[in-house]
Every structure is written in C-alpha cells, then in structure tokens.
C-alpha cells in the first residue's frame, strides 16, 4: 500500500499538481463526509459491500473539481480508513483489490468532469472490476456449488454497486454541482 501511495504522489508531482492548504482541507472535508455517508447503509452484503446513501458522491466531487490525481489520492486515503471501519481481510493482495484500488478508481470520474454521468459510470465500472477480480481470486469458495466463480463475483458485486451507482447519479442530479464545485477552493485542474 505504501508503494501505491508513492505512485500517486509521484504522479501528482510529475503533473505539477500542488497540494495547497485549501486542497488538503477540501480532501479532509470530503473524506469526513464520505465516512459519515458510508455509515448510513441501506443494505449490507454478507461478505462485504454496502448500498449507502451516496457515500461516493464526495469522492466524485473531488475528482470533478481537482481531477483524477487528487481523486485517486482521496480514494486511496478513504480505502485505508475503510479498512479500519469495516475490514474483511483474507489475503494481503485482496486488501488492495477491495480497499484502496476500488476507491482510487473513483478518481477516474475526473477524466470526464464535463460529463458527470459518464465520469461516474467510468469510476463505478473501474471500482466494479476491482471488486470482481478480488471476488474471483479470493472469494471463489463462496460461490454456490457448480456456479462459475466469475459469474458469482459479477452478480454479487453488481447487487450492491449498481444500486450505489444509481443513488449517486440521483444525488448528483439533485445537487447544485456547479455551485458546489465553485465553492470548493484551491487550484483547478
């Protein structure tokens, strides 16, 4: 995980993205909001994964405002916090695919900051793929007898990520996004 953090910070440095005080404050506030929203669970899956009240929206807003680099950094930090909040660990590599990497993927939304729903879909698709890889490799034993582990992982992860995606899109539709992004200070991408 330390190597992943070094790669993120190195990427930010090479792209000349500075972590100003205002940017760090925005990251901290959005992480706090993500943590609070993650606690408001509509449904919790038995082996991990939850449908929340739009917990990924703050990470998406960071990605839209500051770009994929800052979004990935915030996602990485949230992944570390989520390990502490709700751990389900079977292997060290599984930790990467279930915690920092899927939340870092939320930073990909910043690639399409002009198209909120496309960016959100890309971020959730990347997060979905991370969880599917983890499911196939590390949780195949949970698949019902005779069921393909890939099919099981696809269905299991889709049951909570599709509703989570829809909820986030609805919230993004209802929020005054332009005003929120303008109110977030700091450098823009």
UniProtKB/TrEMBL annotation:
Keywords: Membrane, Transmembrane, Transmembrane helix. GO terms for molecular function: thiamine transmembrane transporter activity. The chain crosses the membrane at residues 24-43, 55-81, 101-117, 124-144, 150-175. The keyword Aminoacyl-tRNA synthetase does not apply. The keyword DNA-binding does not apply. It holds the Pfam family Thia_YuaJ. This is Thiamine ECF transporter S component ThiT. It comes from Mitsuokella jalaludinii. The gene is thiT.
């Amino acid at each position: 995980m330390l190597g992943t953090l070094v790669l993120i910070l190195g990427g930010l440095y090479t792209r000349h993205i500075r972590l100003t005080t205002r940017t760090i404050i925005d990251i901290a506030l959005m992480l706090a909001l993500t943590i609070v929203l993650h606690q408001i669970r509509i449904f919790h899956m038995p082996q991990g994964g939850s449908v929340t009240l739009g917990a990924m929206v703050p990470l998406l807003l960071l990605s839209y405002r500051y770009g994929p680099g800052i979004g990935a950094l915030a996602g990485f930090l949230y992944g570390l916090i989520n390990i502490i909040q709700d751990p389900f660990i079977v292997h060290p590599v599984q930790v990467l695919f279930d915690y920092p990497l899927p939340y870092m993927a939320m930073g990909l939304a910043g690639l399409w900051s002009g198209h909120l729903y496309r960016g959100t879909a890309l971020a959730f698709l990347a997060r979905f793929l991370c969880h599917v890889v983890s499911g196939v490799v590390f949780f195949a034993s949970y698949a019902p007898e005779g069921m393909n582990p890939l099919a099981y992982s696809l269905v299991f992860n889709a049951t909570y990520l599709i509703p989570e995606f829809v909820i986030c899109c609805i919230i993004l539709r209802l929020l005054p996004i332009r005003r929120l992004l303008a109110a977030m200070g700091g450098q823009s991408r």
